[in-house]
Design goal:
The chain is globular and about 55 Å long. It is built from 15 helices and twelve strands. By secondary structure, the chain is of the alpha/beta class. It has helices spanning about 5-15, 25-30, 40-50, 60-70, 85-90, 90-100, 115-120, 130-135, 150-160, 180-185, 200-205, 215-220, 235-245, 270-280, 290-305, and strands spanning about 15-20, 35, 55, 75, 105-110, 125, 145, 165, 190-195, 210, 225-230, 250. About 45% of the residues lie in helices and about 15% in strands. The protein has three domains: about 5-85 and about 265-285, Rossmann fold; about 85-165, 3-Layer(aba) Sandwich (Rossmann fold), CATH 3.40.50; about 175-250, NadA-like (Rossmann fold, 3-Layer(aba) Sandwich). It has a four-stranded parallel sheet with strand order 2-1-3-4, sandwiched between helices. Strands 6-5-7-8 form a four-stranded parallel sheet. Helix 4 (about 60-70) crosses helix 15 (about 290-305). The chain binds 1,3-dihydroxyacetonephosphate and iron/sulfur cluster. The site of iron/sulfur cluster has 14 residues, from helix 5.
Length: about 300
Amino acid sequence: MESIIDKIKKLKSERNAIILAHYYQDPSIQDIADFLGDSLALAQAAQKTNADVIVFCGVHFMAETAKILNPEKIVVMPDINAGCSLADSAPPDKFKEWVEKHPGHTVISYINCSAEVKALSDIICTSSNAEKIIRSVPEDTPICFAPDKYLGSYLIKKTGRQMVLWNGTCQVHETFSEIELIKLQKKYPNALVLAHPECPDNILHYADYIGSTSGIIKYATDSPNKEFIIATEEGIIHQLRKKNPDKIFYPLPGLNGCACNQCPHMRVHTLEKLLLALENLEPRIEIDEELRKKALRPLQKMLELS
Ligand code: 13P
Ligand code: SF4
């Protein structure tokens, strides 16, 4: 009998589709993806693809970004309900008021935001290029940064630039436990701590390396060290182990040892939903053309600077 993997592969070629997936996806989805990446690499892959259909296994703002860059292509998600607490923390009407309260500021928005918020921003950034984007703004121009306050505070320290911060957080990264981190460090004293900059300062404080998901994978792969504590969504451990079978990775748990180091939004996709999305070419991402054009400008600025 034909397996679900065979059915997906067959339909994918019939539809001339490409499967793009983020590192926080379930391992079964990561293993069937044509391209895996961080937010920047996924946006770049969406920009370059010749496929007619993009199946986006990530969260809504990522698939929306793919559609903004590819209005002529069909962009589907296995489950359209894959949201993001950071994107949800910035409702467009409140964000507009905030921008209007800061005239003369350059508005830099993390890619984890809606198309409406992108359209109200001057430049988009991801965790891979945020530092470079901030440094591209003239020294005497004040900056508003949204929606992640922890990423924003980290970038203020890193660049020495004062920025007005929006008060948003990632529900996964803000829940990592400092006590569990100390316990892991005691148990594995040779392990290096690799953290995502969406973590609060009390976690970043222990990090030997801070970077995007791709940055974390590159750092661990290039490092001669053999043990690592990973302070980001634990889906990334699958790629870390695949690329480094001789190394040991310890996922940092959330508070009280809960499984909240798995993003509930990223994890809604399944192989069954992926197959259905390919069969039906639904659910699709659709964006009003005026809004798309406005959201495209700051995204293009980012891609030019990256
Ligand atoms: P990156 O993969 O760009 O580091 O972002 C992490 C993230 O939060 C995705 O939602
Ligand atoms: Fe959003 Fe956090 Fe989930 Fe990333 S891990 S999609 S930032 S809620």
